[in-house]
Amino acid sequence: MVRTASFGTSSSFVLRLGQTLFSSASLLFMCFNDDEDFYAYTAFCYLVTVMGLVTPWSVALALMEAYSIILQKLPMQATVISVIVAGDFVLSFLSLGGACSTVSVAVLLIGAGEKQCDRYKLSATMAFLSSFLSFASTLFNFRLLPSLMSH
Questions:
Q1: Which of 48, 46, 43 is nearest to 29 (CA)?
Q2: Which of 76, 100, 129, 135 could form a disulfide with 92 if both were Cys (CB 3.0 to 4.6 A apart)?
Q3: CB 106 within 8 A of CB 127
Q4: What is the pTM of this model?
Q5: What are the C-alpha distances in Å from 33 to residues 27, 45, 72, 122, 129?
Q6: Distance between CA atoms of 13 and 65, rounded to whole angstroms?
């Protein structure tokens, strides 16, 4: 059984910490803005909503991973890993969509003469990195599922 970065390993824990860090940074960059037109763009609101979902998901799974590492007892039930894989998969594509839409609106605003869009682009970059790490977690845990189904 290959357990490179699957659930309950230290490398998987590092992936979760990265997801938490990048999703929190994306959320903070979007929320601490003094722009009153922020709510006029649904792409910005969408990214805040998605990062508001990704952050607690990543924190909860990071805590579960830390607990598994400390006790060296892994939740090797196929249903638990399936839920984690599905959640990571869905949230990775939602955050990717939010990052892409935010960058698109930021580029349009820059083209229209807005000068203060760097924060939006930085937030979208953080969301993209979070999406990448979440999809990596999906792939690593998905690889673990066949061995759990045979038990």
A1: 48
A2: 135
A3: no
A4: 0.87
A5: 11, 13, 43, 12, 21
A6: 6
3 state DSSP class of 134: helix
* Residues shown for the chain: 151
CB 133 within 8 A of CB 140: no
Beta carbons of 139 and 92 less than 8 angstroms apart: no
The number of CA neighbours under 13 Å toward the Cβ of 23 is 29
